[in-house]
Design brief:
Number of strands: 8
Distance between the termini: 41 Å
Shape: globular
Strand order of the largest sheet: 3-8-7-6-4-5
Structural class: alpha/beta
CATH superfamily of the largest domain: Cytidine Deaminase, domain 2
Strand content: 5-15%
CATH class of the largest domain: Alpha Beta
Length: 302
């Protein structure tokens, strides 16, 4: 803990927020007062913070768990496991200044959100979307293969989970898309679909459902967002993990960027979209061998 404090102070951090979760370090209580005095001396503000999910996202999570036939008992066991692992009533009451029960309720909602992300991935299997397309020998030796490599399967699950987490940032959780670009086992970009400007978002805030449908042409898609924000200029031969099939707008951008492998958290099958997006372009590129594509199929968690 002292090492972490020194790094925080050297970095010039002036405020630290942390959840009301009991520290894992076995000597945490012994050092707690020493750390507090050091924070006070350095004038670093501390406050307890617990993430509150948007109401729309909580509703979307419950609907998705129900749609995937995820057993209520399975979700409850997962929520209890998270609570038992990270929550201690006595410790939380000592650090929370606001409503205690509200914080615990927020933890339950967060646990359901994690369940919606992790339970399907835990029971998913990856397979090549176009098995009849032979992978060129020069690409096969260094190809990312979550179907046959256990370590790479875990990486795929982890980064797809990260992609799903980024949906929290979008204004449309139900239609949210997230993606992650990996180069040489390092994350070089994360993206989600959202408005390019805050002013555009605000203009749709109080619109009717029908009027709000008109906002989708203004969105920057997750893949576009990630490519614009990447911290590596050259992403040739990299892997992109996406929570939804890339559309006709994003597919050419991913192709031009030189990304070689696409890992999906869904099966690569025809998508019925009521908006003007087309997903056949990506499927056609996969059939041509432009991308090595792995699709995930998930068994019902019951």
């Amino acid at each position: 803990m002292l090492t972490v404090y020194r790094l925080i102070e050297m970095a010039g951090v002036r405020k630290v927020s942390y959840p009301p979760v009991e520290p894992e370090y076995y000597e945490a209580r012994k050092e707690e007062k020493r750390i507090e005095s050091l924070f006070d001396a350095a004038q670093i503000v501390q406050n307890v913070f617990f993430p509150q999910l948007k109401k729309e996202l909580v509703t979307a999570v419950e609907e998705e768990l129900s749609a995937k036939a995820t057993s209520f008992n399975y979700v409850r066991e997962f929520v209890e496991k998270v609570s038992n692992r990270f929550w201690n009533d006595e410790y939380a009451k000592g650090v929370i200044e606001g409503p205690f029960h509200q914080a615990k309720h927020d933890l339950e909602n967060l646990s359901k959100w994690f369940a919606q992300i992790y339970l399907p991935l835990k029971h998913s299997k990856f397979a090549l979307a176009a098995k009849h397309i032979a992978i060129p020998s020069e690409r096969a030796t260094s190809a990312f293969d979550p179907e046959n490599d256990l370590h790479q399967r875990r990486i795929a699950n982890h980064l797809l989970a990260l992609g799903r987490m980024t949906v929290q940032y979008t204004v449309e959780p139900k239609t949210g898309v997230g993606c992650v670009i990996m180069k040489d086992n390092d994350i070089v970009a994360v993206g989600w679909n959202d408005f390019p400007l805050k002013s555009i978002e605000e203009s749709f805030h109080y619109a009717t459902d029908q009027e709000r449908d008109g906002k989708y042409p203004f969105f920057i898609h997750a893949e576009q967002n990630a490519l614009l924000a990447r911290n590596a200029k050259d992403v040739t031969g990299t892997v992109i993990f996406v929570t939804k099939i890339p559309c006709h707008e994003c597919t050419p951008l991913v192709k031009v960027a030189g990304i070689g492998t696409v890992v999906l958290s869904t099966p690569l099958k025809p998508v019925q979209e009521k908006y003007s997006l087309n997903y056949d372009t990506f499927r056609e590129e996969v059939e041509r061998g432009t991308f090595i594509c792995y699709e995930a199929s998930t068994e019902n968690v019951s």
